[in-house]
Amino acid sequence: MLSRLTRLPRPAALAVCAVPVLGLFAAAAFAPLPFVVAVPGLTADVLGSDQGKPVITVSGAPVRDTKGQLRMTTIRATGPSSTMTLPELVGHWFKTDQAVMPREAVYSSGGSDEEIEKHNLEEMARSQSAAADAALGFLHKDPKDVKVDLNLADVGGPSAGLLFSLGIIDKLDGDGSGGDLTGGRNIAGTGTITADGKVGAVGGVALKTQAARRDGASVFLVPRDECGDAQSELPEGLQLVPVTSLTDAVNALRALNRGEPAPSC
């Protein structure tokens, strides 16, 4: 014998069904998501000093005094183990001085905080070696005769490569005619560098342009493939110069020194 089922009124039935659905939405809204928040980070003049030591030291060749600045730029992000909920993500998304980025885009090596720091320092060391090779190759100087030491504490990753190379060139050769490669300007930028002088993309350029302008830069060298990102939140008064190689960057700065137009995004 079957017992008779009690049928709920339709509104009540919908309400009962909605309870678990709302519970799922609530759980999803407050579930930890693998995103980090990034903000404009520090900039550092590679022609200057860091913690009392010159960032660039050259031996085996005469160096020149420089007057301008070449500022490498960084972003600062929440830690690799951090997460955020959907409401937090939405709250940060619309702020122009912040960027919500997938965790793996910032911490691609994965692992613990210590492992990531070690990886970033190794990347910086490789970048410095490539930067020195690229600069000396551009100047046709033998790396057996000319030694370059680069010192920049508390910064990891490869994105300062282009600025290191430009700093070495400015120390050794300037604009090729006795003047500063910078023309006395405050120049900033970002980009990886290979030993043969190719410039690569880095990410976070919209935040880096903000850091550059905050610290007084008037020109920003950007990997050409990242022009769109750099333009998205471009601060007023900052000129974007796209480059694909070290030669591009040097030629653009020399053109600016002569009062000629440089490439633009």
UniProtKB/TrEMBL annotation:
Q: Which residues form the Lon proteolytic domain?
A: 156-248
Pfam families in the record:
Lon_C
SUPFAM superfamilies per the UniProt record, alphabetical: Ribosomal protein S5 domain 2-like
Q: What is this protein called?
A: Lon proteolytic domain-containing protein
- Which source organism does the UniProt entry give? Streptomyces yangpuensis
